[in-house]
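Tutorial, part two.
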Amino acid sequence: MTGECSSIDSTEPSIARVYDYLLGGKDNYAVDRKIGDVFKRDLPGSVAIAFANRAALTRAVREIVTTTGIRQFIDLGSGLPTADNVHQVAQRHAPESRVVYVDTDPQVLVHGRALLEENDRTRVVPVDVRDPEGVRTHPDTRALIDFDRPVAVVFSAILHHVNDDEGPGDIVRHWRDHVPSGSHFFVSHFRSGNNPETAEAEKVLQGTFGRGRWRTDEEIESLLDGLEILDPGIVPASAWRPDAGDGQWGGGERELTVWERLIAAGLARKP
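Running the prediction step on this input gives:
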């Protein structure tokens, strides 16, 4: 979310690296683990948010590739690589799929450059997601994305890091207005539970990074204004088109935990 890319600073925590740590990754430093441990120690169960979000993203990319003709993706605020990145999921089903990753975290960019060496259908664009026109007109975006054809725009766990005064809805509207009919939008977002867990998690993120905004289902839905929200709507990420066997939502009996309910997901289509 920084405005300019710079050298990696191991003394300041990074949202991308904290997320990597919570998912069990290795690309993080002590300062990131310190923040991550607050969630693990003081907010037990909260790590489920990261895993529920990642699983919903994987299902959404698979759904888009297998049920539409979309073969190009823009992943905004992509973060550090984990298992099943967008290009891996998309290309597993449609090898010709092209993916532009957008992030300004220096460590993400290092990984992105390594990725380019092994996959010529990916690009990493070092532009802040709050500058959608800068992302859209970047030469690397233009080299890979044909804006005359439908695009999948991915806002996975990024809009909740855009504060209200930074216009998260304006960012989505910009993309809505600059992609053709039939384009899809995936959004996952911290979901306000109006409970102590929400308040404490929000306090940790705001105190550390100065950002991290929990929003209600109605607020999240409003970010997708002008788009057709597809079934099942804005729901907890674990309940978004689950695979068979995914607990209660896949035909079993398990109830979602309070933490799993604190990340929502939805898929929308531009009419």
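Confidence is low (pLDDT under 50) at residues 1-5, 248-252. In part three we will examine how such features are distributed along the chain.
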